[in-house]
Design a protein that fits this description.
The complex is a heterotrimer. Chain B contains 26 helices and two strands. Chain B is mainly alpha-helical. Chain C has two domains: about 80 residues, NADH-ubiquinone/plastoquinone oxidoreductase chain 6, subunit NuoJ (Four Helix Bundle (Hemerythrin (Met), subunit A)), CATH 1.20.120; about 40 residues. The model of chain C has no long low-confidence stretch (mean pLDDT about 85). Classes of the chains: A mainly alpha, B mainly alpha, C mainly alpha. At the A-C interface, helix 1, helix 2 and helix 3 of A face helix 1, helix 2, helix 3, helix 4 and helix 5 of C.
Chain lengths: ~100, ~625, ~160
């Protein structure tokens, strides 16, 4: 069978790619998408864990992660919409009112 | 029964405590009764202790009562312990007796003052401190009392603190005292180094055992005398006493005539073995005393303020006491202290009565002919003046004569001559005061004349009592010419104060000296009579002939101005410079600097908060890298 | 067979993510992401979690990404967004991310990963756990979803002019 370590490696690569994506992109939407990538990488790691130790609870955890990520995405996107309405732009470098 | 003497200070102390805590809520009558009664009770206890002291044999002097060990630090220790012997007995009786009369007088004098309760609080506190001073059995506790009376002096001189001059006078008194105290403390320290304890018994043993070198003893004695000079207003630290007249008159009577200023004399008498052992110190004391006596008397000649005349007179009389102590006749010095307490406080209280009658006037140029209107004040005042002038059969004569005779007997002719000069000046200025105030033409302000009235009984009765004692108090110290047993006072003090060793004069010489003193006193009175009653024009014509001298005397030899220029103003200027260049620049600078440095770092760090999410996530990433790294390795 | 599938799916996944990063158009990025999620779903299936695979595809690829595309549509940015001007910041972050990669790999190497036993997990097992041991979080998550729902609506609702 496929050794679980392969999956872990893939998960790590995806996670780091997500980080890179976050720093490379300049608009909020794509940065948010990068966060989703990171979440999914974590999900993959959990499932691999479930498989390697016959630990079903990990799958339940992933279930919850997906649910919460969905809720978070809904709200986050709503906020992005609001920001767009306010500033007419979603470039992150223009959003710095929490400065100082 | 004999051991209750240690209670003497604590009765007024208790009264003070009650007044401090509850004074504001107590009605005036209660305050008056409590304050006076507490001093009276102290007086009774002192009297009881005195009588029981007479019954105990002299070998057991002094009776020491050690309450508890107060300080114990290594080899240094000081106890809260009191001692009772003839010297303490005399002092305690004087303080409580005269103090009681003055408390009663104050009830009338301060009746309409709004600080009534505060006044009696301070007065009781003073009595407490003074009693600690005279009853202490070691120098440290005595110093506690010493400082305590200095503090009360400040509080009472500046009693009407809203008046600038009063506040300044209080400050001056305290500061000049402090300068003297510096010498005093050094003296105590050296005693401790030499003897290992500051108990009087231990010190006396050390001295008679020869444990202290003569030079060391001289040094210590001089340092102690510096303290005495500050407290007892001798040259050059006398400048505070005339200004101290800003305080209420009973305060002047109690503190600056009868008790506090005599603390220096008491201290010298207490340390008499030390001063005798170091002959030089005694000579210095006598010389300073004599110079002060004359110097102050000359300044009293020209003063127009009735209280200032008395103030300079006090300084002068204190000089006499130090003459007595300096030549080795400590008993004579204490005797003069005792008689002086009576007639000087009488003079002050009577002056207060005059001021009270004239609604606060104290310029003698605006008085005159008052003897018709003040049937109690005038005779008592007169008795006091006669006593201080040294007219025979009153107390002042006996004590002053004792001092001068001893001075001559010890061969201190210069001192004796100065003393004599002082005596004639004393008689002169006192009677100048009497004639200007009570005789001659009336020069009163019309307003004052309208309200002219004799003082109430609560004020005149103490006057009468004091006058009585001013007459009779001297008889316990009759001159030795009449037989050695006649001087009860000296005999009483003998266990504590050995009489002056050398100096025996022939009977003829003694009588001659007495005669000279009498003649001098009467001469002074007569000259004053001529100047101010018979031919009142004479003073003016003298002033016209020697305006320079008059100006010098009137302005008190410009001593205050000299001190101001040489010491006070440079110090003030110096502290201003230090304030600007060190206090503001360095200390405030450091403080503000650290504040602005913190602000600077805060601003630097706040640059981290850019407001960009990306930067924050960067920090997360960095943190994650570091943490995983740490966990890994 | 399974290994071949694994490598296929993982390559496509990583490729999709890279495409998402490199694409200048946001819509294209979103679509790439959908692809990546589907691949992940497949990978879940490979790992013997068919239920989770389906959930992943339905919810993540199907619902969440649709939300994303809706919002992209509404935002309607004509011009594409170029890369960060300051290249060095990207480089630094990338370097740091790679360091993290290294660290995690090393950590994973040291970890003890058991042998993967055969067999897939049935929904029944998940359901059992969900309704017994994890009942509490389950119920609370439902409240969470309602909160998100209401919150999203309230947030975006246009205020009426007074």
């Amino acid at each position: 069978m496929i050794p679980a370590s392969y999956f872990f490696l893939l998960s790590i690569i995806l996670f780091v790619l997500g980080i890179i994506a976050f720093f490379v992109k300049r608009d909020l939407i794509t940065q948010f998408m990068a966060v989703e990538i990171m979440l999914n990488a974590a999900n993959l790691a959990f499932i691999a864990l479930a498989k390697s130790h016959r630990f079903v609870d990990a799958q339940v955890i992933v279930f919850f992660i997906i649910t919460v990520a969905a809720a978070e995405a809904a709200i986050g996107l709503a906020i992005i919409l609001l920001i767009f309405r306010q500033k007419k732009s979603i470039k992150t470098e223009e959003i710095s009112s929490m400065k100082g | 029964m004999k051991d209750i003497f240690w209670l003497i200070p604590f009765v007024p102390a208790l009264s003070t405590l009650v007044l401090v805590l509850f004074g504001r809520k107590l009605p005036k009558k209660v305050v008056s009764w409590q304050a006076c009664l507490s001093v009276f009770i102290s007086f009774i206890i002192a009297l009881i202790s005195f009588f029981s002291l007479l019954k105990t044999p002299p070998e057991s002097y002094p009776i020491v009562k050690n309450l508890f060990t107060w300080i114990s630090a290594g080899s240094f220790s000081a106890n809260l312990s009191f001692q009772f012997d003839p010297l303490s007995a005399v002092m305690a009786l004087v303080v409580t007796g005269v103090g009681f009369l003055i408390h009663v007088y104050s009830v009338g004098y301060m009746a309409r003052d709004k600080g009534y309760t505060r006044y009696f609080t301070y007065l009781n506190l003073f009595t407490f401190a003074m009693l600690i001073l005279v009853l202490a059995s070691n120098m440290i506790l005595m110093f506690v009392g010493w400082e305590g009376v200095g503090l009360c002096s400040y509080l009472l001189i500046g009693f009407w603190f809203e008046k600038h001059s009063a506040a300044n006078a209080g400050k001056k008194a305290f500061i000049v005292n402090r300068i003297g105290d510096a010498g005093f403390i050094l003296g105590i320290l050296f005693i401790f180094l030499a003897v290992g304890s500051s108990e009087f018994t231990a010190v006396n043993q050390a001295i008679s055992g020869g444990l202290i070198a003569r030079g060391g003893a001289t040094l210590i004695a001089i340092l102690l005398f510096i303290g005495a000079a500050g407290k007892s207003a001798q040259l050059p630290l006398y400048i505070w006493l005339p200004d101290a007249m800003e305080g209420p008159t009973p305060v002047s009577a109690l503190i600056h005539a009868a008790t506090m200023v005599t603390a220096g004399v008491y201290m010298v008498a207490r340390m008499n073995l030390l001063f005798t052992y170091s002959g030089t110190a005694g000579n210095i004391v006598a010389l300073v005393g004599a110079l002060t006596a004359v110097f102050a008397a000359t300044m009293a000649l020209t003063q127009n303020d009735i209280k200032r005349v008395l103030a300079y007179s006090t300084i002068s009389q204190l000089g006499y006491m130090f003459i007595g102590c300096g030549v080795g006749a400590y008993a004579a010095g204490i005797f003069h202290l005792y008689t002086h307490a009576f007639f000087k406080s009488l003079l002050f209280l009577a002056a207060g009565s005059v001021m009270h009658a004239l609604s606060g006037e104290l310029d003698m140029r605006k008085m005159g002919g008052l003897r018709k209107y003040l049937p109690w004040t005038y005779p008592t005042f007169l008795i006091g003046a006669i006593a201080i002038a040294g007219v025979p059969f009153l107390s002042g004569f006996f004590s002053k004569d004792a001092i001068l005779t001893q001075a001559y007997a010890q061969g201190q002719y210069f001192v004796w001559a100065l003393g004599l000069m002082g005596a004639i000046l004393t008689a002169f200025y006192m009677f100048r005061l009497i004639f200007l105030t009570f005789h001659g033409t009336e020069r009163l302000e019309p307003e004052a004349k309208k309200h002219l009235h004799e003082s109430p009984k609560v004020m005149t009765i103490p006057l009468a009592i004091l006058a009585f004692f001013s007459i009779v108090a001297g008889y316990i110290g009759l001159p030795v010419v009449l037989g050695k047993k006649a001087n009860l006072f000296q005999n009483f003090l003998e266990p504590v104060i050995p009489p002056a060793s050398e100096g025996h004069l022939s009977m003829g010489m003694e009588w001659t000296l007495i005669l000279i003193s009498v003649v001098v006193a009467l001469l002074g009175i007569y000259i004053a009579y001529v100047f101010y009653l018979k031919r009142p024009g004479i003073p003016h014509s003298i002033v016209r002939r020697i305006p320079g001298v008059y100006k010098l005397l009137y302005n008190k030899y410009y001593v205050d101005e000299a001190y101001n220029a040489v010491i006070v103003n440079p110090l003030i200027k110096g502290s201003e410079i230090i304030y600007e260049n060190f206090d503001l620049a360095v200390i405030d600078g450091a403080l503000n600097g650290s504040a602005s440095a913190t602000g600077f770092f805060g601003r630097v760090l706040s640059a981290l908060q850019t407001g960009y999410v990306k930067d924050y996530v960067f920090v997360f990433l960095l943190g994650a890298v570091i943490i995983v790294g740490i966990l890994l390795f | 067979m399974a290994i071949f599938l694994f490598f296929l799916l993982s390559t496509v996944c990583v490729g999709a993510v890279l495409g998402m990063i490199l694409s200048k158009n946001q819509a294209y990025s979103a679509l790439f992401l959908v692809l990546a999620f589907v691949c992940l779903g497949g990978l879940f299936g490979l790992l013997g979690a068919p239920f989770m695979a389906v959930v992943q595809i339905i919810i993540y690829a199907g619902a969440i990404m649709v939300l994303f595309i809706f919002v992209i549509m509404m935002i309607n940015l004509r011009e594409g967004i170029s890369r960060e001007k300051k290249k060095w910041t990207i480089a630094l972050s990338v370097v740091l991310a790679l360091v993290l990669l290294l660290e995690l790999v090393l950590a994973a190497k040291g970890a003890s990963l058991g042998q993967s036993p055969e067999g897939s997990v049935s929904p029944k097992e998940i359901g059992q756990l969900l309704f017994t041991k994890y009942l509490y979080p389950f119920e609370i998550t439902s409240v969470l979803i309602i909160a998100a729902l209401v919150g999203a609506i309230v947030l975006v609702k246009k205020r009426e002019k007074e």
